[in-house]
Amino acid sequence: MTNSPDVLLIIEDRLVDTLILTRFLGQAGFKVISAKSGEEGIEIATTMLPDLILLDVMMPGMNGFDVCDRLKNKNQTTEIPVIFMTALTDTLDKLRAFEAGAADYITKPLKHEEVLARINAHLKIRKLQRQLQIQNQKLQAEIAERKLAEARLEEANRELQRLANLDGLTQVANRRLFDRQIEQEWRRHLREQQTLSIILCDVDHFKNYNDNYGHLAGDSCLQLIAKGIQNALHRSTDIVARYGGEEFIVILPNTKTEGAIQVGEVIHQAIEILNIPYEHSPLKNYVTVSLGVASIIPNIALNPLDLVGTADKALYIAKAQGRDQVVYCDVVK
Question: E strands along the chain, which residues?
Answer without folding.
Answer: 7-11, 31-35, 52-56, 82-86, 104-107, 196-203, 239-244, 247-252, 289-296, 326-330
